Task: inverse folding
């Protein structure tokens, strides 16, 4: 039986992120007109080339049938090309900012910049995009760009999350007009717990050999060894002695005392 007056602990929260698909920036009317024209031309070309022979008493195809069919296919292909955005899919959430790109032989592996590895979040006027710079999970430099035209909600959520987690690296001012982040924007995905074994403590450089020895910042997911845990993370979030590796998004329990640095 729980002690009277003791505040129950909140359940652990799952790590989550949002997956954003880019929008095509070409006029939908133009895409629809080209697509319709191409489809009509292909239909007419098919009839002229083969339909007359198959469905009528005529034994000869019209001489221009093949050219009309080929031209319609080209126009339809152009409509599909300009109606599809070339921007990558973006992910924003507890794990940081990620990017999914398509390669020649299929989808390339997901690359993500954890929040504690983000070095700048800025607005690029030339491309009208929110640009995130930092190092990915392998320590390699990575730049992620969210254009306001094709990825308006991704850009809005990047700025919102960055201001809440790593505000010191955000230089996006109020002069930049962003959409209001919507709660239903993007596809919500659940992330695995933070991998801590083999990582180095951010305070001491000590290698984490066992998962129970790790403490993860609930705001930027910077990793610490429990023996070298400071009262607060570099991002300013308070740290506790309680393990949070299974739910890095959970706020620290205020009843847990701060661990003193070793």
Result:
């Amino acid at each position: 039986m729980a002690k009277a007056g003791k505040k129950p602990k909140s359940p652990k929260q799952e790590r989550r992120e949002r997956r954003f698909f880019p929008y095509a920036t070409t006029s939908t009317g133009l895409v629809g007109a080209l697509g319709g024209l191409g489809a009509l031309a292909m239909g007419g070309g098919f009839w002229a080339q083969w339909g007359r022979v198959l469905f009528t008493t005529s034994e000869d195809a019209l001489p221009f049938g093949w050219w009309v069919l080929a031209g319609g296919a080209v126009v339809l292909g152009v409509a599909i090309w300009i109606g599809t955005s070339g921007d990558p899919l973006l992910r924003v959430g507890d794990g940081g900012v990620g990017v999914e790109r398509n390669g020649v032989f299929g989808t390339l592996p997901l690359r993500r910049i954890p929040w504690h590895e983000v070095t700048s979040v800025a607005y690029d006027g030339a491309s009208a995009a929110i640009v995130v710079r930092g190092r990915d999970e392998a320590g390699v430099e990575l730049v992620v760009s969210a254009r306001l035209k094709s990825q308006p909600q991704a850009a809005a959520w990047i700025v919102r999350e960055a201001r809440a987690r790593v505000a010191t690296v955000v230089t996006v001012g109020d002069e930049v007009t962003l959409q209001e982040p919507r709660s239903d924007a993007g596809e919500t995905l659940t992330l695995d717990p933070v991998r801590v074994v083999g990582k180095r403590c951010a305070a001491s450089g000590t290698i984490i050999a066992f998962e129970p020895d790790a403490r993860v910042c609930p705001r930027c997911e910077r990793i610490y060894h429990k023996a070298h845990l400071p009262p607060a993370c570099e991002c300013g979030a308070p740290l506790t002695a309680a393990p949070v590796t299974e739910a890095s998004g959970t706020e620290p329990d205020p009843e847990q005392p701060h661990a003193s640095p070793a």
